């Protein structure tokens, strides 16, 4: 581990040098100083008069998706509108949900990672964009609303004074779960063949249909059942390959991984009831109508037990890297450990990482630092990674198809109510939500806009293997998305401490203490069983506790 940390430190120093010196990237360079046409404050009109440009200001959450795609789009817009200057203000902390809601939204347009939508509408922070959402951007054939993901279309619809209005539209979608090293799987024969045997054992080169049972798509050869999954992991371990790694600093990454298992077992419709407390679920052999009064019964969804079973198996068989629970192990360090494992002289190679769809773009600079030392085959886009859907339960009761979870359904593009350039903001809003711009966003970042749009063959040629895999999986007819951060009942906002994702999903009362994340709990107590943890969840959300906390909201 010390050797690895030395390697990581060397790369981290190199990465800082690369970012601050070699590329000359800085906030000043990116903020409002894009292409040549966007650099000047004045323009010459048709009469030859020099005039001041109208400045459109943008607040951009500068996370793993970065800002280069937006700067490129802004530069393209300014080429078409030479009387406009666009200033992009990149930040993270100031665009945090709780921070931004307390401030004046002084920029014209915002691209945000996640907001509590109802709070912003109720506080009159956002411009009513109903008219533009129902318009057709230039070059398109459908309105922005018509192309929007149906779940999100319904969520962002706001009924006011008897009419349906919109104050924001979804920004991006990034599903969460297991990312695997395609090159490693091919080298080692870790795919399953058409007879249900691992290729490393059978010698076959014909892949199975995978978890979704459809041959010829994104999950061919991957473990289709729990039994196939355990066999794969044990084969990896025997081959001196570490199956998993993850960040130790951010436990919610592990919660999301377990939620992805739970969701795929239940299917979108039954998983979504956990966000609405309104719908029918199957508990055992019985169909139950869930309401606010009996939401505690959702702890009995078998998908949770299935997720706990997989978590226990990973921990008790030590199928994870030794630094996975270090509180100082950030998500970027976990990414670097994963990427470096293929060249590290003493550390075992790592097959999979628990991550979101944004991870590859976020690690772009580190890929290229590796290439400087180890060659171009390690550069961004030259290594192949893909998403591993959840294997189906051996009991045969997992939902059909593939259900994925997204934690970014509340990421938005919105216009500030206080904008001084309403018409300009609306015009740029339409431009950035056009099919052409969405294609460019996906091509550059590898992430998805949750709208209907296709990629061209030229687009795909410029995308990484991982980005193409994500797009194909997301747009597959057998794929459904459950949005685990879309609270469709205000009770989740008013009672966030009790019903927040990490608590309500896997919070458990165990011997006087409360655990929020099962993988860690299993790692600390070898005697802790799946049933023990499950009983603790049901105790935390028992009927009596539920009534004590929430009865004031019952009709």
Please give a structural write-up.
With 555 residues, the chain is an alpha+beta fold. It is built from 27 helices and 19 strands. The strands form 6 sheets. Strands 9, 10, 13, 14, 15 and 17 form a 6-stranded mixed sheet that branches. Strands 4-3-5-16-8 form a 5-stranded mixed sheet, covered by helices on one side. β18 and β19 form a beta hairpin. The N terminus is likely disordered.
Summarize it.
This protein is α+β, with helices and mostly antiparallel strands. It contains 27 helices and 19 strands. The strands form six sheets. Strands 9, 10, 13, 14, 15 and 17 form a six-stranded mixed beta sheet that branches.
Query: How would you state the average pLDDT, rounded?
Result: 92
| Total count of strands | 19
> Strand count, sense and closure of the main sheet?
6 strands, mixed
Number of helices: 27
Low-pLDDT stretches: 1-32
The chain-level structural class is: alpha+beta
Alpha-carbon Rg, integer: 24 Å
- C-alpha end-to-end distance: 57 Å
Helix content: 40-55%
Q: Indicate the proportion of strand residues.
A: 15-25%
Gross morphology is globular
- Identify the quaternary structure here: single chain
């Amino acid at each position: 581990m010390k050797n690895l940390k030395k390697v990581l430190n060397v790369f981290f120093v190199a990465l800082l040098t690369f970012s601050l010196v070699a590329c000359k990237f800085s906030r000043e360079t990116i903020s409002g100083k894009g292409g040549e046409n966007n650099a000047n404050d004045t323009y010459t009109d048709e009469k030859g008069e020099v005039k001041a440009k109208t400045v459109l200001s943008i607040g951009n959450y500068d996370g793993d998706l970065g800002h280069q795609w937006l700067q490129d789009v802004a530069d393209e817009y300014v080429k078409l509108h030479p009387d406009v200057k666009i200033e992009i203000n990149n930040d993270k902390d100031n665009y945090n949900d709780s921070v931004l809601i307390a401030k004046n939204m002084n920029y014209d347009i915002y691209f945000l990672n996640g907001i509590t939508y109802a709070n912003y509408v109720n506080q009159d922070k956002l411009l009513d964009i109903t008219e533009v959402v129902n318009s057709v951007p230039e070059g398109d054939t459908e309105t922005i609303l018509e192309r929007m993901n149906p779940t999100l279309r319904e969520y962002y619809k706001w009924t006011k004074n008897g009419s349906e209005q919109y104050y924001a539209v979804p920004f991006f979608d990034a599903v969460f779960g297991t990312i695997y090293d395609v090159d490693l799987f091919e080298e080692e024969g870790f795919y399953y063949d058409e007879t249900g045997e691992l290729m490393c054992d059978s010698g076959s080169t014909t892949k199975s249909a995978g978890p979704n049972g459809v041959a010829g798509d994104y999950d061919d050869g991957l473990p289709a059942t729990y039994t196939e999954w355990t066999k794969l992991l044990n084969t990896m371990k025997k081959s001196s390959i570490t199956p998993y790694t993850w960040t130790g600093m951010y436990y919610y990454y592990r919660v999301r991984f377990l939620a992805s298992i739970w969701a795929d077992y239940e299917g979108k419709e039954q998983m979504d009831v956990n966000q609405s407390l309104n719908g029918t679920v199957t508990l055992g052999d019985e169909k139950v109508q869930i309401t606010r009064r009996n939401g505690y019964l959702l702890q009995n969804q078998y998908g949770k037990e299935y997720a706990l079973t997989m978590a226990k198996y990973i921990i008790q068989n030590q199928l994870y890297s030794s630094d996975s629970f270090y509180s100082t192990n950030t998500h970027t360090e976990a990414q670097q450990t994963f990427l470096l494992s293929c060249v590290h002289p003493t550390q075992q190679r790592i097959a999979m990482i628990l991550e979101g769809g944004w991870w590859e773009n976020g690690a772009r600079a580190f890929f290229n630092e590796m290439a400087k030392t180890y060659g171009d085959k390690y550069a961004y886009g030259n290594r192949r990674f893909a998403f591993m859907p959840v294997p189906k339960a051996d009991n045969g009761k997992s939902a059909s198809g593939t259900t994925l979870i997204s934690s970014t359904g509340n990421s938005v593009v919105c216009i500030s109510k206080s904008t001084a350039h309403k018409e300009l903001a609306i015009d740029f809003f339409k431009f950035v939500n056009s099919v052409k711009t969405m294609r460019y966003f996906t091509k550059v970042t590898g992430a998805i806009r949750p709208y209907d749009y296709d990629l061209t063959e030229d687009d795909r040629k410029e995308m990484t293997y991982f980005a193409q895999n994500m797009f194909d999986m997301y747009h597959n007819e057998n794929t459904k998305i459950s949005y685990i951060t879309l609270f469709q009942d205000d009770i989740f906002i008013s009672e966030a401490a009790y019903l927040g994702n990490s608590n309500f999903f896997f919070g458990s009362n165990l011997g006087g203490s409360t655990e929020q994340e099962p993988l860690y709990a299993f790692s600390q107590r070898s005697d802790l069983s799946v049933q023990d943890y499950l009983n603790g969840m049901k105790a935390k959300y028992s009927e009596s506790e539920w009534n004590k906390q929430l009865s004031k909201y019952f009709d």
